[in-house]
Every structure is written in structure tokens, then in C-alpha cells.
Amino acid sequence: MNADALRKAIADRSACIGVIGCGYVGLPLAVGFAKSGYGVIAVDVDPERVRKLGAGESYIGDVPSDAVAAEVKAGRFTATMDYGALRKAHIIFVAVPTPFDRAKQPDLSYIISAAESIAAVLQKGQLVVLESTTYPGTTDEVMRPILERSGLHAGVDFYLAFSPERIDPGNKMFGIENTPKVVGGIDPESTGLAAAALQVITKGRIHTVSSARVAELTKLLENTFRAVNIALVNELAMLCDRMGIDIWEVIDAAATKPYGFMPFYPGPGVGGHCIPVDPYYLAWKAREYDFHTKFIELAAETNLAMPFFTVARIRKQLNDAGRSLRDSRVLVLGASFKKDIDDARESAAIRVMEILKAEGALVEHHDPHVPAVRLASPLFGSNGDHHTLRSVELDAKRLRQSDCVVILVAHSAVDYTAVLREASLVFDAVNATRGRDGQAQVERL
Ligand SMILES: NC(=O)c1ccc[n+]([C@@H]2O[C@H](COP(=O)([O-])OP(=O)(O)OC[C@H]3O[C@@H](n4cnc5c(N)ncnc54)[C@H](O)[C@@H]3O)[C@@H](O)[C@H]2O)c1
User: Fold this and answer.
1) Best mutation site among 19, 22, 24 for ligand 1 pocket (most ligand atoms within 8 Å of CB)
2) Active site annotation includes 22
3) Number of domains in the chain
4) Is 102 strand, coil or helix?
5) How many CA atoms lie within 13 Å of 441's alpha carbon, on the beta-carbon side?
6) Model confidence over 360-382: pLDDT tens digits?
7) Does the beta carbon of 90 lie inside 6 Å of ligand 1?
8) Is the domain of 183 the same as that of 73?
9) Rounded CA gap, 130 and 103, in Å?
10) Are residues 287 and 168 part of one domain?
11) DSSP secondary-structure letter at 154?
């Protein structure tokens, strides 16, 4: 299929869409295309996920099961572990994980494995679009040569582009259907085709750039911007603690400025698989160019210190109440990496719990969205040992029996007024108790 035929297939919805990796990014994308009338083949290596999708069940909070079931029933959506099914796809999106390893170096093994599997079934005229967040050069230097092992040439026999995903799980205002997308291909034809394909599932603008590298770096700029600004307010939060100034009041006041200021909020650390991970991808790649990304390193240093600072504040609060952290009953509220979602990957709350436990506190946790967490033990150089902590019921008795209740995620489903009414000591790292009264002695970050 040549570019014109592919463009026509996109326009008349006869194009078949493949999506590799059906997680937080891939599943909304796959369902988005199916809802827009395209036939979608969703490929995942996780048999349980494939089984659920085939049965019309979703496991991603922002994608209702009804939406998957409707597309399965309409015959527009199939899920499989078989890459061979992608032979009939016209466009293949790749949304596999890009974590870092224990030394915080990029782990591209998922992209490499997906690319190898695509190479085995790649067809002339197909368009491959990488959506996973990664360092500049991945599409060109890593994906392209692997795909070309098929004997087909990028830009001649198949098209290749990168389009970063901006999805923000839990965000009720912005989803795949209204968030602008950035697209950069290995050549103008690839860019144009990827832009045409993505335009059908979003009312947001498609912003095309001159190369895949520009698109790759765009995503890293966005997330590094957040990491650096969060680090800045975290540093100010630590200073405000010394100065006896309420950082939350300062941010609210600064946010009244209608231009030139954007509020970021402090917290027990940054979590998720984007903000704490993506900047490292850039820092790692920069070293290849004899360049040290000092802002990234500094932001990481500050943000990584926040769980320890949080525990230090809890220790002091208990100390002021005549108790030691060791053997105190500490009830942690919130385990996910941000409010109202069930994703606990790289969660700062988990790090805080690990440190509390390592210091001898008797830790319990409650999270309405996360049934259990795995705490690494020992704290550093973990040899793979983990301790599973199940979410406990939140009731008045438990709140009263806790020596300190620590709020690390401001989930909407938690009754913070009840927390202040029943608990004796509360450490609030996320300003969830603001404007509420109760007999508890409250400290804020
Ligand atoms: N989750 C977010 O909020 C978000 C936002 C923007 C960008 N991203 C980026 O998108 C990418 C995907 O993240 P995610 O959160 O969707 O991950 P995820 O873990 O939720 O989903 C990834 C899926 O890929 C599957 N998978 C792994 N290897 C595979 C392979 N070789 N072939 C087929 N399937 C495979 C996994 O089983 C899983 O279902 C990452 O690069 C991430 O940084 C994520």
C-alpha cells in the first residue's frame, strides 16, 4: 500500500489499527480507534489482560468495561497475544513500558522486544508509530534498525513515526479525545500519515514537528518541566518548615498572579512511571554528548529526598508528643502515586512506608483504590525481598488507636473530617485537611 492508499484507508475508516501494549496508554488508544469506527487488533503479552479484553472487561480505571464490551460485540475490537495478527494491520501503535533499571538507566527491553516481534511480521506499506516515552533517537537508532531486519526499508517500504502520549490518568477534563498530540516521523511522509491517523481520534490539535527526535524530546521536556518545578516547591517546603511559614498559603497567594506563575505543589516525593523516570532517560542520553543535565540531577536529588524529609517530620511530630517513631502505630492514608487512581508504580507513599518500617514503626495503610502494596526490604540494595501490606478498613477505632495518621495521597473518597475528629496526631503531606476542623493535632508539610 502506498501513502495515498493509506491516507484513503484512514479517511474512509477501512484502515485496520494494531495497538501493541494494552495498558494505561495503549488501551484508551485502541478503544478510541474502535469507537471511531476502525477495526482494532490489540496485542499484549499478558494472557490475563488479553482474556479480559476478549471478554469485554477493562482493567484500566479511565476505560469503562462497557466501552470495551461494546466494541468487542460490534466486532471492531479483538485482543490477542499473536503478533501474526498484525500482518493485516495498516497502522501499528506501540505503547509498551519504558522503565529504568535499578541503576536508573533506561530499560528499552520492552521496545526492543516489541520491535523484534513486529519485524517478523512487518508488511510493505505499514505505518509504525511509537508512543512509549523515551530518549531522543530511540525511534531512529533503536526501532528502525530492528524493523529493517525484516528486509524492508524505513521511509521506502514502511513508515515510521513517534508520537508521545500525554494521557493523564484520572484527569476528568482532558483525555485522548481532546488533548493535542505532537507527531514527528523519520520523514515527512511518515509524519503526515501518523498525524492523519491520530487526528481521527482527537478533537485536539495535531502538532507536527520535523523529526522523531524532536517529538521524543518534546515529551521529555514536558515531564522534566514538571519534575524541576515540583522540586522547586519541595525545596521551598523544606525551607518554609525551618522558617515557620505555611508553604500552601504562599503558593495560593502567588497563584493569584494572572501571568508568569503556574502553581506546583509540594508532597512526599514524586511518583508514577513518568515524572520520576523520564528525566533520567534524558540525563542518560545527554552523557553520550559529554553533557550533564544539572537541573535534572538537582530536581531528582530534591524529589528523592522528600520521602526522607516526610519521615523526619513525622518522627519530630511524634517526638514532640513524647513518643518515638520506633514501635509507634502509624496509619498511612494513600498508596497510589496520585489522588483518585489505582496506580502505585514508583509511588512516593510506598517509599515513605518503607522508610517508616525500616525505622521500626508499625505501619498500616488504607487506600480505597490500592488493595495491597509491596514494600522493599531492606530499604537499599533490596535483594528482591518484599513485604506485602494489605489496605486496612478505615474506621473510628483504627484512627483512635493509631499514634499518628499520615496522609500521603488526597483521595476524594476518604473522609478527612472524620480523620481529624478521631485521630490524635495527623501529619498531612498533601494539604488534604485544609479548612477542616477536629481535635487532632495536625502538622502539614
Ligand atoms: N501511564 C501514563 O500515564 C503514561 C502517560 C504518558 C506516557 N506513558 C508512557 O507510555 C508507555 C506505556 O505506559 P503504560 O502506563 O501504558 O504501561 P502499562 O504497564 O500500563 O502497559 C504496558 C502494556 O504493555 C504490555 N507489554 C509489555 N511488553 C510487551 C510486548 N513486547 N508486546 C506486547 N505487549 C507488551 C504489558 O503487558 C502491558 O499491558 C510508557 O513508555 C510510559 O512512560 C504513560
Assistant:
1) 24
2) no
3) 2
4) coil
5) 10
6) 999 999 999 999 999 987 777 66
7) no
8) yes
9) 25
10) no
11) B
